[in-house]
């Protein structure tokens, strides 16, 4: 008799991602070890919650069968009393699963961008450092289809454009470091997989705290949408994310090619060439130019780009536009100059 359907689903999702990682590193399962490059190390980011524990269990099962070394990292954000003890418990569970390395990393969470964004920034910085320290080929993250739906709605609320609606990528980070095997699986499947395998899980009280935007969306917003629109909202939002990502990737590629064609010999942007571009492409060119000039991407919002865009489409002799990172955009002699002031 095979494994429970939930267990089979999470293992299949992880197996597919691990095979992709092997392909990326030139390894072929079944070939003699002496003909293979060194076994890659894959880390799992594990909070001890149902999603990441299900992910850890699937990695522990699949990795040895594919000749992959498996390790685990838990990040102690220090935001709750006893968080260090809880992190130590997660490390113990990871070691019981056979992970090496298995470690806890303590971080200091700042205040920039709000508590959720600050915690996320600290967490990814710690995971990046751990991956570099151990020479990991990839880090697996336990985001599910439900998380994707929440991310799409948060992007919609910000009004940040199609890139925000594209949600989380299955592969992201420097060199494709981060992999999300569960984006096509719902949260209940992960929880069920933990239950049938008798895996202990920890439910973070922050996930139910209405002080956090994502928590309110999870427990109030999405249920209200499902009540009004019927079941299937989460699946529809996840599909929207994929379609939006495909469109955004295509537009980004177009903008990359267009940027080279609207620069003069000195590298300045020609206003006439920019004006001829479709708005979606032109604004991407402007955003990229602002970031290259030193504007922090996370602080550069749609309203900033719209103001710069008016220097092209609504030119009335207006003055310079101040952007985050002390970057200034101004129109001079038919050219758009974007640089730090």
CATH class of the largest domain: Alpha Beta
SSE pattern: HEHEHEHEHHEEHHHEHHHEEE
Indicate the overall shape: globular
Low-confidence stretches: none
- Number of structural domains: 2
CATH architecture of the largest domain: 3-Layer(aba) Sandwich
Give average pLDDT, whole number. 91
Radius of gyration: 23 Å
CA-CA gap between termini? 68 Å
Would you give the CATH topology of the largest domain? Rossmann fold
Largest sheet report? 6 strands, mixed
Quickly give the structural class. Answer: alpha/beta
Pfam family, one: ATP_bind_3
Family: Belongs to the tRNA(Ile)-lysidine synthase family.
Organism: Streptomyces calvus
Protein name: tRNA(Ile)-lysidine synthase
Secondary-structure topology with pairs:
Layout: H1 5-24, E1 41-45, H2 50-62, E2 69-76, H3 83-96, E3 102-106, H4 115-134, E4 138-140, H5 145-158, H6 162-165, E5 171-172, E6 178-179, H7 187-196, H8 213-229, H9 233-261, E7 269-270, H10 271-275, H11 279-292, H12 302-313, E8 321-323, E9 327-332, E10 335-340
Parallel strand pairs: 1-2, 1-4, 2-3, 4-6
Antiparallel strand pairs: 5-6, 7-10, 8-9, 9-10
Helix pairs in contact: 1-2, 1-7, 2-7, 5-8, 5-9, 9-11, 11-12
Keywords: ATP-binding, Cytoplasm, Ligase, Nucleotide-binding, tRNA processing
Binding site for ATP: 47-52
InterPro entries: Rossmann-like_a/b/a_fold, TilS/TtcA_N, tRNA_Ile_lys_synt, tRNA_Ile_lys_synt_N, tRNA_Ile_lys_synt_subst-bd
Question: What can you see in these coordinates?
Answer:
It is a single chain. 35% of the residues are buried. This protein has 12 helices and 10 strands. A 6-stranded mixed beta sheet has the order 3-2-1-4-6-5, with helices on both faces. With 341 residues, the protein is an alpha/beta fold. Helix content is 50%, strand content 12%. Helix 5 (145-158) crosses helix 8 and helix 9 packs across helix 11 (279-292). It has helices at 5-24, 50-62, 83-96, 115-134, 145-158, 162-165, 187-196, 213-229, 233-261, 271-275, 279-292, 302-313; strands at residues 41-45, 69-76, 102-106, 138-140, 171-172, 178-179, 269-270, 321-323, 327-332, 335-340. The protein has 2 domains: 5-229, HUPs (Rossmann fold, 3-Layer(aba) Sandwich), CATH 3.40.50.620; 262-340, Uridine Diphospho-n-acetylenolpyruvylglucosamine Reductase, domain 3 (2-Layer Sandwich). A hairpin with a 2-residue loop joins strand 9 (327-332) and strand 10 (335-340).
């Amino acid at each position: 008799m095979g494994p429970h359907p939930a267990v089979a689903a999470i293992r299949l999702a992880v197996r597919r991602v691990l095979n992709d990682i092997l392909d990326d590193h030139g390894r072929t399962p079944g070939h003699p070890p002496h003909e293979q490059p060194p076994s890659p190390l894959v880390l799992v980011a594990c909070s001890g919650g149902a999603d990441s524990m299900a992910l850890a269990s699937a990695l522990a099962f699949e990795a040895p069968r594919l000749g992959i070394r498996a390790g685990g990292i838990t990040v102690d954000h220090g935001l709750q009393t006893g968080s260090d003890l809880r992190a130590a418990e997660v490390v113990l569970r990871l070691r019981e699963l056979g992970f090496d390395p298995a470690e806890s990393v303590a971080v200091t969470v700042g205040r920039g961008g709000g508590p959720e964004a600050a915690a996320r920034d600290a967490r990814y910085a710690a995971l990046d450092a751990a991956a570099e320290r151990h020479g990991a080929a990839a880090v697996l993250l336990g985001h599910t289809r439900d998380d994707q739906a929440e991310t799409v709605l948060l992007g919609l609320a910000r009004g940040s454009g199609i890139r925000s609606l594209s949600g989380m990528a299955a592969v992201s980070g420097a060199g494709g470091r981060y992999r999300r095997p569960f984006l096509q699986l719902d949260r209940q499947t992960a929880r069920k997989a933990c239950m049938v395998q008798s895996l202990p899980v920890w439910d973070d009280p922050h996930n139910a705290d209405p002080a956090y935007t994502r928590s309110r969306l999870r427990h109030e917003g999405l249920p209200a949408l499902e009540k009004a629109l019927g079941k299937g909202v989460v699946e529809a939002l996840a599909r929207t994310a994929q379609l939006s990502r495909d469109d955004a990737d295509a537009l980004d590629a177009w903008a990359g090619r267009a940027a080279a064609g609207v620069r003069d010999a000195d590298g300045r942007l020609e206003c006439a060439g920019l004006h001829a571009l479709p708005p979606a492409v032109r604004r991407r060119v402007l955003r990229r130019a602002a970031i290259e000039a030193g504007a922090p991407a996370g602080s550069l919002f749609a309203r900033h780009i719209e103001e710069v865009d008016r220097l092209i489409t609504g030119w009335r002799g207006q003055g310079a536009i101040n952007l985050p990172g002390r970057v200034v955009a101004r129109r001079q002699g038919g050219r758009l100059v974007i640089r730090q002031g």
